[in-house]
Structures are given as structure tokens and as C-alpha cells.
Write a structure and sequence with these properties.
This protein is mostly beta strands. The chain has 4 domains: 126 residues, Immunoglobulins (Immunoglobulin-like), CATH 2.60.40.10; 78 residues, Immunoglobulin-like, CATH 2.60.40; 87 residues, Immunoglobulin-like (Sandwich), CATH 2.60.40.10; 50 residues, no CATH class. It has 2 helices and 33 strands. It has a 6-stranded mixed beta sheet with strand order 2-10-9-4-5-6, with no helix packed on it. A hairpin with a 5-residue loop joins strand 7 and strand 8. The termini are far apart.
Length: 425
């Protein structure tokens, strides 16, 4: 058994202060009729700290003290005994090495555990061998960890789902408390607490039930509160509105600020330009919540329709388009020039004109040389389907419409052609 003057373990509540109180009590001259009592100091003990079972009203005619676990004096439950005249200590079968007994009969527990909770019995033996027995209670409570809120449905549908929030972990001999938006729970037919307050049920949730929620656990030695928990209640999203500081601006001079306005909570925002997701650039920036779009400075390519879209897990809605017009200087010598598309259009137009002129010249030339005459019949020959090259002659067969006689003649000095013969009126 270590002597009472041995230092306490580092990190525990120092017990030498308790020893001072014990020492002072040993010098009290109390009436002989005073009965011995036991007090736990502190009354409620946090696990891991030190606690003293302080014996009050000890008298000078005491021979010794014996401490037992439980409410009865049983040898197999003996912790330690101390004899005053010899200052001898005797350890019992339930001695753990963390107990220390003092000359006034007080018993110190170092680094108390929850297993130390229970009744303890002190037997005081007088010089005349008379005995006085008293029992005291030691309460050791755990230091509570930070609780966590869990939900059976973190994304409920408005007016349809019921949500059950639970404060974890489940611990005995503690009290549970709930807060919504940093306020204690109000009376509501849609809110219901379990018998031990550990679970909170919300019936037919609405968008106003998003929270945040907090739960707190308490015992006699500690209290701790959870981190905030927010419900994401899925509900129809109202159409947002886009507002601008100006819808007609000047290139390189003005700054445009567009704001997405919505009354919905728990929604995410994104921006669209001409129906497509907006691409950010050094000039085009969004606020942290995406609610404000800033273009600085504005350029002509920024002209177009802007929309914002609000969405939650189940729904989304887009604003009406807001048209942004950008004025710019198109005078000669300005920084602007023909775009690639404009240049391509001009080139295509020129080429089309050249082709048209060439076709016209070719057509007129063919009309000029395109007739041959049969020298025998005096029949004019019209031409189609031109082929390249020259030939000296070609056979032509024709039926005279007056006599139904077939003639054969020779055409000379005509271009090589596939010919159709027609009689002129």
C-alpha cells in the first residue's frame, strides 16, 4: 500500500487538496454522541477523475478502519484496513491498486471508472472493540462524446414523407434535448418525441422543416451538443427571376451585374447563355452562391439571352430569358474587322458570280454556231448535247413530210454532235 503522501497520477484531479480536508478533520474534537457519516467528494464523479469517500465524525478512541465493497461487511469484499496505533495497512481481495486509505478513515479512488459505481461500507472499530458501520454511495459517470443526428430519410418529399431523427449514441442514464434553428421545440401536432426524447419524428414535412437540428446529451458530469443537421426537403421549385443593372451596355466601358432572385431555400443555381451552360472566364465571374453574375468589362460577344436555373434533388425551373444588348463602334479604323464568316461569304459570292458569267458567255457562243443546214433538203438542224472535237462529215437521214420519202444527205463542217433534226415551218 502506497503511503498517503505519494503524488497523484499526472492528468487526474489532484487529491492532495482532498487530503488537506481529511487532515483537518482528524484534529476535530467532536462530541462522543456524533455518528460517523460518509460523503462523496465530488458528489458526482466523471470517469477518469479522482474521488474521495470522506469519513466525517471520526473520534480519537478509534482503533482502525475497514472498507468493503457493497452494503455489508463480508471478508471476500474487503478492500483495505488501517490500524491507527501501528499505522499498518492490509489489502483485501477487492483491492485494485487505485485505492488509498487515510488515518481519519477516508478512502480515495484514483482514476475512477464506471465499475467503481456502487455502495461502499466503512466499519469503524473502537478501542473497546465496539464497531460502528456506515454505508455510502459512489457515482461515476462517463464523459459524454459528441452526439450525432441520423435520419431515416435525409431527402424527404414535401407533404408526403415522415422523417425520424435519432440522437446517437444510445447511452444509459443521460438526458436528451433537441433544438430547431437554435430554439427549443415548440408544441406542434407534426412533432413527436419518444419517451426518452432520443428520437424526434416529423410528420408530413414541409420546406419550413429543413432545420438545422441539434441534439444535446447531458449527465451529471458533462453535456455536449451535436453538429447542426439539415434536412433537404424536396419541393417544387418556383421560377426564378433575373435582374440586371442594365440591359443595354457599351463594349469595353460598362460592367454588367446579373442577379438570380428566388424565394426557395436549399436550391442550387446555375446560369445559361443562349440556352447553353455559361462558360466562365476571367471577365465573367460568379458569387460564392452562384446568385450573382458579373461581366467586367462587357464585350460584343456577351450580347444574348441570359437565364438562371434553380434546382433541388427532384425539381428545377428556369427563369425567363433576359436579353443583353451590347453597343460597339463599327466605324473604319476601329478595332473590329470582318469576321471569318463574313469573308467566307464574300468569297463564295464572287465565285458564284464568275461561274454565272462564264455560263452566260458559253451559252451565247453555242447559240451562234449551233445550227447546220442540210445542203440537199434545205432542212435546218438544231443542236443539243455538245461533244468536243471536229469531224468532216456526218450522215443524216430525214423523211420528207410531203412525200413520206426518206432522204440521206451529208452534213459538212459541223461540230461533232448528237443531233436532232427538225423541219422549219
Amino acid at each position: 500500500m502506497e503511503p498517503p503522501s505519494a503524488p497523484a497520477h499526472r492528468g487526474h484531479v489532484p487529491w492532495h487538496r482532498l487530503l488537506l480536508a481529511v487532515s483537518l478533520l482528524s484534529f476535530w474534537n467532536l462530541p462522543a454522541t456524533a455518528q460517523i457519516t460518509i460523503e462523496s467528494v465530488p458528489f458526482n464523479v466523471a470517469e477518469g477523475s479522482d474521488v474521495l469517500l470522506l469519513a466525517h465524525n471520526a473520534t480519537e478512541d478509534t482503533l482502525g478502519y475497514s472498507w468493503y465493497r457493497g452494503e455489508r461487511v463480508e471478508n471476500n469484499q474487503l478492500i483495505v484496513t488501517y490500524r491507527i496505533d501501528t499505522q499498518a495497512y492490509t489489502q483485501g481481495p477487492t483491492f485494485s491498486g487505485r485505492e488509498r486509505i487515510y488515518p481519519n478513515g477516508s478512502l480515495l479512488f484514483q482514476n475512477a471508472t464506471q465499475n467503481d459505481t456502487g455502495y461502499y461500507t466503512l466499519m469503524v472499530t473502537k478501542n473497546d472493540l465496539q464497531r460502528e458501520i456506515v454505508t455510502g454511495l459512489l457515482r461515476v459517470y462517463p464523459v459524454l462524446p459528441r452526439p450525432i443526428i441520423t435520419s431515416n430519410n435525409p431527402n424527404p418529399v414535401e407533404h408526403e414523407d415522415t422523417v425520424v431523427l435519432t440522437c446517437e449514441p444510445e447511452t444509459q442514464h443521460i438526458t436528451y434535448w433537441w433544438w430547431i434553428n437554435n430554439q427549443s421545440l415548440s408544441n406542434s401536432t407534426r412533432l413527436q418525441l419518444s419517451e426518452d426524447n432520443r428520437t424526434l419524428t416529423l410528420f408530413n414535412v414541409t420546406r419550413n422543416d429543413t432545420g438545422p437540428y441539434e441534439c444535446e446529451t447531458q449527465n451529471p458530469v458533462s453535456a455536449t451538443r451535436s453538429d447542426p443537421f439539415t434536412l433537404n426537403v424536396i419541393h417544387p421549385v418556383a421560377k426564378p427571376i433575373v435582374e440586371a443593372n442594365s440591359t443595354t451596355v457599351t463594349e469595353h466601358e460598362d460592367t454588367v451585374v446579373l442577379k438570380c432572385l428566388t424565394n426557395d431555400t436549399g436550391v442550387s443555381l446555375r446560369w445559361l447563355f443562349n440556352g447553353q451552360s455559361l462558360l466562365l472566364a476571367e471577365r465573367i465571374k460568379l458569387s460564392q452562391d452562384n446568385g450573382t453574375l458579373t461581366i467586367e468589362p462587357v464585350r460584343r460577344e456577351d450580347a444574348g439571352n441570359y437565364q438562371c436555373e434553380a434546382s433541388n434533388l427532384g425539381n428545377s425551373n428556369k427563369s425567363d430569358p433576359l436579353r443583353l444588348d451590347v453597343k460597339f463602334d463599327s466605324a473604319p479604323g476601329s478595332s473590329s474587322g470582318l469576321s471569318g464568316g463574313a469573308i467566307a461569304g464574300i468569297v463564295i459570292g464572287v465565285l458564284a458570280g464568275v461561274a454565272l458569267i462564264a455560263g452566260l458567255v458559253y451559252f451565247l457562243f453555242i447559240r451562234k454556231i449551233g445550227g447546220c443546214k442540210d445542203p440537199v433538203l434545205g432542212i435546218a438542224v438544231t443542236v443539243s448535247d455538245i461533244y468536243l472535237g471536229q469531224v468532216t462529215s456526218a450522215n443524216s437521214q430525214r423523211t420528207n413530210p410531203q412525200t413520206s420519202t426518206t432522204f440521206r444527205t451529208t452534213l459538212t463542217n459541223c461540230p461533232r454532235r448528237l443531233m436532232k433534226l427538225h423541219t422549219l415551218p
